[in-house]
Every structure is written in C-alpha cells, then in structure tokens.
Write a structure and sequence with these properties.
The structure is a homotetramer of 346-residue chains. Chain A folds into 2 domains: 160 residues, NAD(P)-binding Rossmann-like Domain (Rossmann fold), CATH 3.40.50; 164 residues, Dihydrodipicolinate Reductase, domain 2 (2-Layer Sandwich). In chain A, the strands form 2 sheets. In chain A, strands 3-2-1-4-5-7-6 form a 7-stranded parallel sheet, sandwiched between helices. A 7-stranded mixed sheet of chain A has the order 9-10-8-11-14-13-12. Chain A contains 12 helices and 14 strands. Chain A has 346 residues and is α/β, with parallel strands linked by helices.
Chain lengths: 346, 346, 346, 346
Amino acid sequence: MKKIKAGVVGATGYAGAEICRLLFGHPQAELSAVSSVSFEGMALSQVYPAYYQVQDMVCGTQDEVVEKSDVVFAALPHGLSQELAAQCHQAGKVFIDMGADFRLADEAAYQEWYGGTYTDKALHEEAVYGLPEFFREEIKGKRLIANPGCYTTAVPLALAPALEKGLIEDRGIVCDCKSGVTGAGRKPTQGNHYPELNESFTAYKVVGHRHTPEIEQTLSRLAKEDVRVTFVPHLLPINRGILATCYARLKPGVTQSQIWEAYHERYDREFFLRLLPQGQVANVKNVRYTNYCDISLFMDARTSTFISISAIDNMGKGAAGQAIQNMNLSFGLEETAGLLLLPPAF
Amino acid sequence: MKKIKAGVVGATGYAGAEICRLLFGHPQAELSAVSSVSFEGMALSQVYPAYYQVQDMVCGTQDEVVEKSDVVFAALPHGLSQELAAQCHQAGKVFIDMGADFRLADEAAYQEWYGGTYTDKALHEEAVYGLPEFFREEIKGKRLIANPGCYTTAVPLALAPALEKGLIEDRGIVCDCKSGVTGAGRKPTQGNHYPELNESFTAYKVVGHRHTPEIEQTLSRLAKEDVRVTFVPHLLPINRGILATCYARLKPGVTQSQIWEAYHERYDREFFLRLLPQGQVANVKNVRYTNYCDISLFMDARTSTFISISAIDNMGKGAAGQAIQNMNLSFGLEETAGLLLLPPAF
Amino acid sequence: MKKIKAGVVGATGYAGAEICRLLFGHPQAELSAVSSVSFEGMALSQVYPAYYQVQDMVCGTQDEVVEKSDVVFAALPHGLSQELAAQCHQAGKVFIDMGADFRLADEAAYQEWYGGTYTDKALHEEAVYGLPEFFREEIKGKRLIANPGCYTTAVPLALAPALEKGLIEDRGIVCDCKSGVTGAGRKPTQGNHYPELNESFTAYKVVGHRHTPEIEQTLSRLAKEDVRVTFVPHLLPINRGILATCYARLKPGVTQSQIWEAYHERYDREFFLRLLPQGQVANVKNVRYTNYCDISLFMDARTSTFISISAIDNMGKGAAGQAIQNMNLSFGLEETAGLLLLPPAF
Amino acid sequence: MKKIKAGVVGATGYAGAEICRLLFGHPQAELSAVSSVSFEGMALSQVYPAYYQVQDMVCGTQDEVVEKSDVVFAALPHGLSQELAAQCHQAGKVFIDMGADFRLADEAAYQEWYGGTYTDKALHEEAVYGLPEFFREEIKGKRLIANPGCYTTAVPLALAPALEKGLIEDRGIVCDCKSGVTGAGRKPTQGNHYPELNESFTAYKVVGHRHTPEIEQTLSRLAKEDVRVTFVPHLLPINRGILATCYARLKPGVTQSQIWEAYHERYDREFFLRLLPQGQVANVKNVRYTNYCDISLFMDARTSTFISISAIDNMGKGAAGQAIQNMNLSFGLEETAGLLLLPPAF
C-alpha cells in the first residue's frame, strides 16, 4: 500500500519537529515535505542535530508542503492558519491545525481571547475538534481538524466522566496545571534561559490563560451544561509533560465507587488512556515521548472534594501524538498506527 | 557580649545541617555542639564535604549537646522529641523542636495523624507554636517552641489575612502545594533516586498528608472559625522551595482592593514577608537559602475565586531559617539576626 | 516468519528494562520471559509504571527465561553470568552477557580488576566481544557474546581509526569521560540521591576504574600494539549519555586531512556511527534513546594534540541498543532491526 | 569606621549581580552605585526579583558609579574597560576589571585572541593580575586590578605547585574543564535555552578558547618556563561551578609524596584553597556560592600521569568572590572580609 504523504508547515518548532519524529516510525505514513520561515533552505538536522543522517529533509516553502502532501500539519502562530486551511481545503488536502484558529466554536470567544476574527465562516463550520476519546466519530474521515492544546487535552481527560455522569458540580472547579518547558516553544526567552529556569518554579498567566475558554467549551459540551473552571498554569523545570491536578465539589451522596465506575466505563476501552490502580498517582515521567494519558482518582471525604490528576506528554498527547492519532482517524487507519510505543522508564 | 551557645541534635539531617550553616553567619550565636545517631564520632564535614575546613565540628551525643548549649534545636523523627524536650526543660535550656511532637494543640489530632500520645501534658501546655508573623508576642522569651513544618508555614502565610478579615469562605479552600526534594530528607529512596526523580513530576499523599491538621489549626485560630482545606502536595525535581497555590471562594461583594488592603495592612511591617507587586508571581527561586516568603495575590472574577501564591525555601522559612528567627525571639535578639541575607539571583 | 523469542535475566535493572523497551519495537523479535531476583512475581510495570498496560509481563525465574527463549540477555552483577552462560550453552540458546564476565580475554586481567576466576575456560574461548563496528564478522552467528561496557564502547569508537592507521602515539592517551547517572544503576545510593547529585559534578574512581583494561584490550587489538590510556570517569547530573573526550599525541607530520580520511574510510559505511561535520561537537543529547554514536574530531596544532569526542547513550549503544545489534548479528537479521529510531530533538 | 563605597558597572549581568550580593554581606564595604546600559533607570530587583525589598538600588550611569565610589568593579564586554579604567585612574578610584582587557601582559597575544589593541600602554603597565594566591604582594594597595577569568583561576590553582617545583613536564598538559551555564552570561541563546541544554552535555570552542593564553601566561610565569596546555571547555547543565580535570606527565622518578608535599607547602596557609584528603574528589557542589577552591590530587602510576582536579564556583572564586578578595587586598582589609561563608550542603 502506498504510504500517506504527510507534510509539516512550521517543522522546526518543537511541535513540528515532534510530528516529524513520530512520522519516522509510522508504518503507513511518511514525511513528504517540511517548511519553515526561519530556516528555509536548511535541513531539519541542521536545526536539530539529533536528526543528523536520519532525517535530513530540507525545509522548503509552505506551498511546496501543500503540493507534496496528502495531509498538512500546521504548527503556526495563531492567526496564520486560516488562510493555509483554505488553501489545503481547495487543494483537497487534509489539514490538521496545531494552533488555536479552529478550536473555538464561538467566534466571539476567539475574538475575546485571541483578538482575531474568522475570515471564512464556512470553513470554520467544517472544522472538527480533534479530541478522539470524546469526538472520535466526528473526526473519522474529516479533512479539517483542530488539534487541541496541551492543557485543553489534559484537563478534560481528567474530568469528563465525572461531569458526564453528573457526579460533580459544574462550578468551583479548580485546575492547577503544571507544564514542562517545551510547551513555551523553541524561541529563547529570559524566563526560559537555563540559569533562570533551573531550580525555579512558579505560576504564569494566573488569570487569563487562553486555554481557559477551550477547556470550558469541551467540558460544557460533554456535561451538557455550562461548566466554569479556575485554571492556573505553572512552569516546571523539566522538558516534557503536563500534570493537571483538578479539584471539584462532589455532588451530595456521590460515592467513591460511583466515581470509579464512571471512569472505568468511559475509559477502559480507550487505548491511550491508562486509568491507574487506586492509590497510584499519575506522573509526567511515565508518559514521556508517547501518546498516553495517565489518570488517577482521589476523594477527600473530609471536604467532599473529588481530585483527578492526569499526566500527558505536552508534545505527545498534548500536541504531536494526538495529531497523528487524528490523522489516523481521518484516513481510516488503525487509530494507534505509529503510536505503539513503550514509554521509556528513565 | 558572649554569644549564645546553640546545639543541634540530629545535625546531619538536612534541617540540622542547614541550622548549622545559618548559625555560622549569626553575629550573636554560635554552634556549640552537634549530635547524630548515625554519624557519632564523625565530623559534619565528613558527612557534608561542603563544610570541609569551615565547619568541622564532630558529632557527639545528645547529652553533650544539651550540656554545652543554651538552646537546643532538635531535628528528630516525630515521637522522639518529647523526652529530649523534658530533659532540656529541666536543665533550663531553650528547646526548639523541628518535628511535629509539639505542634498540634489537640492530642487527639496528634494521635490520629501521627499515632502517638503526649507523655507530659504540662510540657505540651508550655509549648508555643513558632510562626512569628502570627504569634510573635507569645514566642518572645519562651523556652519551648514548636517550629512549624514547611507546608504549614507556606499555606497560612498565603491565606491568613483574607481569613482574618473574613473576605473568603472557610470551606472549599484548595491548597495545591509543590515542594523541592530536600523536604523528603537525606535518606536515599527509590523515589528520590536521581534517574527516577529527574524529569518527573507527580503528587504524593494526595489525601492524608500529616500537615493537613496543622494547617487547619493555624488557619482556624487566626480566622476564629473552623477552617477546612483540601491539601495536595507535589514533588518538584528541584532541591529547595515550596510553592503554595491556594484557592478560596470570595465572599459575596469582596473587591480586589479589600484583599490587597488586608494583606498590606497585615504584612507590610513584616520583614521576611514580601508582598509582590500586582501581576508578579512568587517563584521558589527568589527565596532560596533565605528566610523570606514571597506572596502574590490574584482574583479570578469569572469564578469568584481568590488565588494566593506563596513561595518559601522549605529549608529556610520552612525549617532552619524560621528556627533561627524563633531563637532570636526567645532570647530577645533582633528578630532578623543571622538572617539578613540577599537571596542569590541564580 | 516466527519471531525470535528473547528473554531477559535481571530485567528490572536499568539495562534489562531498556532491552525490554527496545524489544517492544523490534519487528522480528519479541520479549518471551523476564526474571528478577528482587521482584519475582511482580509485573515489569509494577517496577516501572511507565510500562503500565503496555508491557506488563511478570518476572519469573532465571530457569523460566532460559526455557522460554531463543536468546537470553543477562544483566547480572559480575561473577554471576558464567554459570548461566553454561546453562544456555547446553540448552542451545544464544547468550548475550551485559556484564564483564566474558569481556576480558586475559583471565589474569579479570582476576586483577574483578577478583574472580574463569570457571569454564572452554566457554570463555567461545565468547566473542560484541563491538560490531570492529568485530562484526566474528559476531555473526555466534552464540556467546560479551556485550561491551559503556565507556568501553565510547572510547574505542572515538580513537580506533587513528590508532589503526598509526596516526597517534600509543602512549599518553587521556580519556576524560562523563556519564549520565543511569550508568550507576537502579539502586539508590547517597551519591545518587537527588538533592546531592543535582547541581553537582565530580569525577569518581579517578585511577582504577574497571573499564580501563577493557578499553586497552580493544585499542591494542585494533592498533596491533600495546596501547595505554589514562581513564577518568565523571558523573553528570543527567540521566543518559556518555561523552568521551579523548586526547592523543599526533605522530610527527600527521595532517588533519589524514585524520579525517582515516575516519571517513572506516566509519562512513557504519550506520550507527555519525561522523559530524567539521566544527560540530558531539553532544549526548543527540543520541539519547538510540543506538547512534556521534563522533567529532579536532586538532590542536599548538600542542600537536588530536582530540576526538564521542557521544553515546550509555543505555543505548553503551548497553541495550548494542545488545540488540549483537542479537541481530547472531541471528542473521538486518543489523539495524529494531534500532531504526530517530533520536528525540528534546 | 566608614565603609568603602563600592560601585558596579554592568551590575545586571551575572558577575555584576553576584558582586552586589557579596557586598550586601561585607562588613567594611557597601554598594554605592550601580549602572547598566540595558536597564538604566530600573532597580536591580526588577531585573532580579530575588533582590526585591532587600537590594532595590536603581541603575544609573557609568559616570555616576565612578563619582559615588571608592572602588569600581567593571563587568563589561571586552574592549570596553580600557577607557573606564583610565577615567577611574584619573579620578583616583580603585578599578577592578572583570573582563579580559588588562589580563594579558603581551599586547600581541591580546590582539591575536581578542582582536583589540592597548590604547594606553602606561595604564596597562600599572595593572596587576588579581590571582591573590600567587600574586598577593603585588596586589596589595594596587589601584588597577585585572580579575582573572573562571577557567584561568581553576586551572592554575590545580597545577601551579607541581610546576613550580618542577615535578611535571611543561608539555603535554591537558586541561579538560567543565563549566556551569552562568559562565555564558545572562543573555538568552539557543544553546542555553532550557529545553535544549537540559539533559545535554557537550564541549565547545574545542580548540581556541580565549582563556588559553591567560592560563599559559600564569603557569609559565610560575613555572619560570614556557608552559603549553591543551584546553577543552565543556558546558554542564548546572548553574554554577567549574571542574578542571588537569593531566600532566610526571617527570621521571617523581613520587606521590613529593607531589603532596609540594601542594601542602604551597596551599596549607591559603584560606580559600582546600586541599582535599587523599582519595576524595573535588566537586563543584561543595564550593557553590563561595570563594573556595577545592583541589584533589591523583597519580596514575600505570601511565606516569599526574591528575589534579580543582573545583570552584565560576561566579565565586571564578569571578565575584575573587574580585572582593582583590578589593580587600587593595584596601588593606582582611583578605577574607565578606567571604567568610559556609557553602550550602545542598
């Protein structure tokens, strides 16, 4: 069978580079073309010497990527994907957007949090939100997929079953999240300068991180009611991983076994979701370099609080891994193709 | 003036070693004797080569420490301090306990969370809880001081003014805390083995960490009502520091300026508490090796949630620094003596 | 085609666990059985939660591994492999030893550096030294392979072509090596306790590391003269990787182009050896989780010194990766089978 | 007694900020003024929030620093110190240069390695090289001091006694050095971006680092013969510290006791040099935040190689600490004033 030709626009950013890495091991797809505004004409392996002699593809233009590919992954700053999406749409290519341009159904919310508008509303209506565990059937065969953000994957996976079953309140939810540094991208900043980040730990964008409306959109849709969350992200001095510690008020009378049952019922059949045995806590270390999401559940009876802790690799299930999963669904491949990886133990 | 003679029982543990380090720079106190069960007969600098030729004092017995000291700092596993406290009391020595044996006023709570009893109730009644910013007047001149734990310092400092002024609810408080590894002590474990902790992040003792009743005791006493918290500690792959991200429900109508006013009124005169300018976030990095506590305040109007984030060095304000501060209060010294340090920028 | 059945004795140590991980992705071999003295009866994923639901094989006995496998990888403390090797030999199984028992041709050297004897000399004569880039033809089809150590892979790969061609002196070689922590194994020690190793860097076993005679054996064999090295290992506060910075005296008149020519001639056809472009320096980061060895060459004309810097993953080319490579050679598979991996960029 | 007024030009760089930190604890000197081209008008604590409310001095101009200070520390890019030195000289201020402009006695060497010229030769003749352990008497009372670089402190301290006594050859010396990241400065770069440096290790400027002629100048002067070194620096993923592993050929017949005697004789009276007991190895961790240099000695009898390993804090003895030591010597203070610190154990 001929392999699917997969191109990456913005291939030299972290998300783009990780898509290239996962495609290298994909049995039914192959990297067809890459582009980069900053590194046009340079090989991927000149930007990332880890790829030397293994993946030396040279960065071309965005148009070349569209031309040479069956599917285009776009890892662009928000606001730049809409035009490319239209171009791919016209050319009959599948478009998977790593950015936020197609994630919010509500244009007003996009305007409020991102400051842009939807230039082609018809196109936005075609877009599907690529969180396969919740919207699998919608994604299958679709040609325009908005790949969720990292926090916006970790938090809904932690909370959805409890909300779907009405076991927790839709108000008073606290999402205390911690992310590895790769989430902030490849561009050096003072805050991510090694001597300053090393041995540090802090929160950032304490009120007003742009993932807030996206988290609430997913949870509200699943809960079929208006869910609100307080979301505070923190920056970990590690490379990869998001730990989402989510707190919610239990509805009166809800028991521990109801909670566990809801999660087992919903997640046991999900290949990439690993519901941990009682007492074990999700750890970002255990999902690194893969598409798994580990979930651990706790109840604080003293305060009637439900605590769900999920862990993903922000570059895996939180970005590139999920994008491959969406590609697989779009093309009718095995959903796990190219993602059957054993996370390294150390 | 003759220097105060300060002895450390359990000097080779991390808290003990840090007390020795701070005493080295104290203008009115000096290390008089150290003991260690595991390293008796060895110099501190054989256990910590960083101290070589600078602090080479040899570990003797507990009795020698008591004999040679005006004040005894005890860094012992819980349960072992009560007898030593009695011995110091009889010998007329000031006793500062780094452990939990004298922290809880309620013996039933101690039994429930630590599994021991109070062998000498009269002695426990003499004990004062050594959180100077709240209980300064009680500590002055006292001879038996229970030095608070690390989380139990960071959380109350983050929340007290809002509770004291009745600006937040006493229910629904979430304390999502993250600690550096030194908090787990010097003894190697699988979880703290470098290859396993490095690039990892997880929560631990998700429900049921022993600092819970101590946090609630302090907050309830200050709020003059029964305060309950959900407390989840996490382990950071860094050496020093605690970041406490605390969430509380604002009482109806409470404004941002009321919150700020309450904190300024309460903390502006506190030397070691640094209320950060609006928008800045506390970072564990900025208080390392010192006794400072940085506090940053936020309001999530969308969800009526108050967020207070505090940062301390778990070995500084969370242990050894606060112990020195308590010694200073006990002996009538300047409260800042030996603690006038500029945190390293990197 | 039926997959090769591969068993791992000592599977819960780091080298063993990494062999299991690589086998998970091997197209022509599969994990058949694992054993562990410390964790018998427990699943691999109970020891390494990263493997949960992906590789949950339960640890059995050594005998079970031998019985169920075509090839047995032994990751045992030195001295324990000889008996197992004999058992495998009799049972007609291929035996790949991760330890030192079969590495030294000279029993006297083994006695001097390891303190043991060779219990079955005939068996030792059958053993081949598994450094494929130098001894490929000998390894093919062999049933008893001594997998080299980590330093003993990195140093010969850095120096061999220059020695083989007689371009550098066989005396005065300095091998300043730096290793990640996983090289010291899974057992927690004071030195590898996170707070003590973090932000530290030092040398260890400055004179007398056991890899010295093994390095000299390989280099002498390749140079066809008696080569001596000064070898000093250091411990890096990172998980994976060895950087070997090797210094040698250039023979009079040797030019830079002679050096480069020798390396290109020798290594250009080697899949796992990546000779870096002039000016680039090998970095342990670029080979992590894979079997590659990066090599970079420099000449200090001022001092007539040749400097070769190689980088491997101590758990990859320095242990498990090379073991898989040897298995492939022994069974007549593609040498790269299961090792066609793109190193992660971050 | 009136305190010495100490000003820092370039105070917001790492070396400048560390001088400010050490001055904070100095009993006889105080920070009088700071300047910064990039942050003029901002407080030090806006650049380094660790200093908030403790050291909030505002950055002014270079001229203000000169005017308000008895001693001016200049932490400037090379080439910019000469004019400022002249200005200070004329104004009768002591000038301590953290850069390279006055370090090399030989202008031709400066031209070759730095590409500049000496604009005022008379001024250069007044400059003294500020390595107190070797040139103490020259430094006392001097008004123009070239503070050595970090590598150029660590290597000579490791090798000098053996060279002074003629115990090692002046050819064939290898200096394999490893530095923490702060040595590369505060400006973010791709190489020091957290995700790229974390879990990495490599060498840089393998042949041709500018500290080479400075190291050779010091060693040649002490050995009274022309000493050549091969110097290769590496970058450690830690914040502070340099470990210099130095290899030299022993002269025929030299014994281990001769070596030890030479070092004891030379260093036992040096407060900041800690010659470690036999068998112990210097570790960067043990000197962090202080002015100490740890030295450990080894002999490889098999190869007649002497190995000396020294450890300093690149920002302490390698920069700011040594600058304070030089100030003390210049002003006739106790050499240890402000530097009597116990290195933290963790």
